[in-house]
Amino acid sequence: MMPESQRPWILRIYNIYRVILGFCLAILTNAALRDGLLDLDNPSLYETASWVYLFVNVLIALMLHEGRREGYLFVLAVLDIFMLGILFYAAGGVSSGFGNLLIIPVATGNILLHGRIGLLLASLASLVVIYLTFFLSLSHPAASQSYLQVGVLGCIFFAVALFVQRLSRQLRQSESLAQQQAVSLASLEKLNQLIIQRMRTGIIVVGPQQKVLQANEASAQMLGKPIIREMELEQLAPDLAQRLQQWRNYPSIRTLPFRNHRGGVEIMANFKPLAQESDDTVLVFLDDNTQVAQQAQQLKLASLGRLTASIAHEIRNPLGAISHAAQLLRESSQINEQDQRLSEIIQQHSKRMNKVIETVLELSRRRPSEPQLVDLRLWTEQFLEDFKHVTLATDTVELEAAEEELLTRIDPNQLNQVLNNLCQNALRYSGNAGTTRTIWLKLYQNRDTELPVLEVIDHGPGIDDEHVQHVFEPFYTTEVSGTGLGLYISRELCESNQARLEYERLEPRGSCMRITFAHPKRLI
């Protein structure tokens, strides 16, 4: 049987053929037109059968051309064989050539129907021409000499049926294989789409005129904006559009990382043309530069560890000797008041230098982060309970936290060190010790990136604009007694947990230290 998808098309062609054949046979009912072409044995029967055949064919073509059931197809083929058999008898048998018209219904029936039913049609066609030839031989003895031709015609019917069945079987197998391959390709396409959507690397397809053709979820999360098909890249990410243009002009130059929005991740973009001959369509890969920064941080800490080991041997011991000598000099009874003041200054600065060395040694000896899945809301509440015991009674810490659960992966001990340092700094800049000082902790989820955020806010004088870009640099401080390592260590601890620490100046006054945490499903 022919494949289901092609059956209506073949049936439609067959109905058109039947209408055309019926029209041609009806034309031959005119004696003037068939003169010299056809010698009818029974003109009246031929005329009646031709017009009936044409009328039935037109009716079927108009009303029943969409029939697909096997019963309908079988009846249609049998009707064709029966009507053409009558025309075969009226035209005078095998000598008229009308027996060849039965080949088409037999062939079409074997295309549209099962093998055994197709062979049944060949049998019916053979029986029709044999019996009609027998009846013709009763009235026309010369027709008895046509049995050999009739037998050959019957063999042709069966040969056509078998050939068409074999051809249909091959077509069915080919279509079945094509369908299986189509299903397999569709499955692979869905799998590829799922893999692309689940990839942590952002992928954007940029077409002509820098229109976004396709993008995965990771790219939308990194850029912090929903990506709409056919939107302009300049509208989505101006820095990315600039780097794409730079890559088009100078492909060999590596582009610099960028942030698409405040608090966003640092993104490294790479470009690859989809076609070698044309650069109209470009594949853009977006990678989170946090992991690279984390690896660089590990190398930096390793170098710092070797440096601090040398500092411990070369500076700490002489510094201890200087401090001890200054203390002995201060206890001497022969020293005057002015020299005692100088000795006190020596001891004070020796302690400060020793504190710097201890802080650097603590940084270099820091253990690797051990991230855990932390509920930030519960953890922050517990931190405030512990922090109240180390602050003055006049100090107040207010917490504003979202009601929903906010999860992240981070080392709780390192987070405690970071937040304790930020809160101490916020209190110190809020006012003098002993006065009423208040700071605020704000915990929420960023709607654009869906990442948890913790802000430490104070309403002190803030950091001057000229110092903002240096606040996270090591040994940079605006205080006389400061080491300049607190914020530096806090940022290093955040980066080792794939979190980000940023500063924002508030208006009209105040400061905000913002920690943007990693996604809870991200492995650190």
Textual characterization of the structure:
The strands form three sheets. The chain has a five-stranded mixed sheet. A four-stranded antiparallel sheet has the order 2-1-4-3. A two-stranded antiparallel ribbon has the order 5-7. The chain is rod-shaped and about 165 Å long. A hairpin with a 6-residue loop joins strand 8 and strand 9. Helix 3 packs antiparallel against helix 4 (70-91), helix 5 packs antiparallel against helix 6 and helix 11 (290-331) runs antiparallel to helix 12. The mean pLDDT is 80. It has 16 helices and eleven strands. 28% of the residues are buried. The chain has 524 residues and is an alpha+beta fold. It has helices at residues 7-27, 31-34, 43-63, 70-91, 103-112, 115-139, 147-198, 217-223, 233-236, 238-249, 290-331, 337-364, 376-387, 412-430, 465-468, 486-496; strands at 202-206, 212-215, 267-273, 282-288, 372-375, 395-401, 407-410, 437-445, 452-458, 500-505, 511-516. The chain has four domains: 7-181, no CATH class; 199-288, PAS domain (Beta-Lactamase, 2-Layer Sandwich), CATH 3.30.450; 292-364, Orthogonal Bundle (Helix Hairpins); 372-516, Histidine kinase-like ATPase, C-terminal domain (Heat Shock Protein 90).
Percentage of β-strand residues: 5-15%
Range of helix content: 55-70%
Oligomer: single chain
Kindly, what is the distance between the CA atoms of the first and last residues, rounded to a whole number of angstroms? 60 Å
Calculate the mean pLDDT score and round it: 80
Total count of domains: 4
Main sheet characteristics: 5 strands, mixed
Shape: rod-shaped
Written as H for each helix and E for each strand, in order along the chain, the element string is HHHHHHHEEHHHEEHHEHEEHEEHHEE
The radius of gyration computed from the alpha-carbon positions, rounded to a whole number of angstroms, is 47 Å
Strand order of the largest sheet: 6-8-9-11-10
Q: Uncertain runs with pLDDT below 50, 5 residues or more?
A: none
What count of helical segments does DSSP give? 16
- Give me the secondary-structure category: alpha+beta
